[in-house]
Write a structure and sequence with these properties.
Length: about 110
């Protein structure tokens, strides 16, 4: 979570410069239009947004990898419990009903 919070702070800080460009553009719209400098401010804004966009993409990738690993681990444990339960039933150490109750207890107690 700290990594994601750090990315949020970095993104906010990086978006400040692009926000300033937009604020200046909108505040001085008549002057910009009369001097036909719309493309200049558009280009400045596009350049100012590149850094925050790349920071946001990196944060999304880290978030997605973390979520994928957590879900993958969870389902790996489920598979391991079912496999081991199957081994115990095959060796007639436990019945199917007892494995069902044990797996239910394991899944919902964690």
């Amino acid at each position: 979570m700290k990594a994601l919070a750090g990315f949020g702070a970095k993104t906010r800080k990086a978006y400040e410069s692009s926000g300033q460009i937009v604020q200046q553009s909108v505040g001085n719209m008549r002057t910009i239009t009369s001097l036909t400098r719309e493309e200049t401010f558009k280009r400045l804004y596009q350049e100012a947004v590149k850094e925050p966009h790349s920071i946001a993409i990196k944060g999304s990738i880290i978030s997605a990898v973390g979520f994928g690993l957590s879900q993958g681990t969870l389902f790996f444990v489920y598979a391991l419990v079912f496999w081991y339960g199957g081994q115990l039933v095959a060796n007639q150490e436990y019945t199917q009903v007892s494995i069902f109750f044990l797996s239910y207890d394991l899944f919902f107690s964690v």
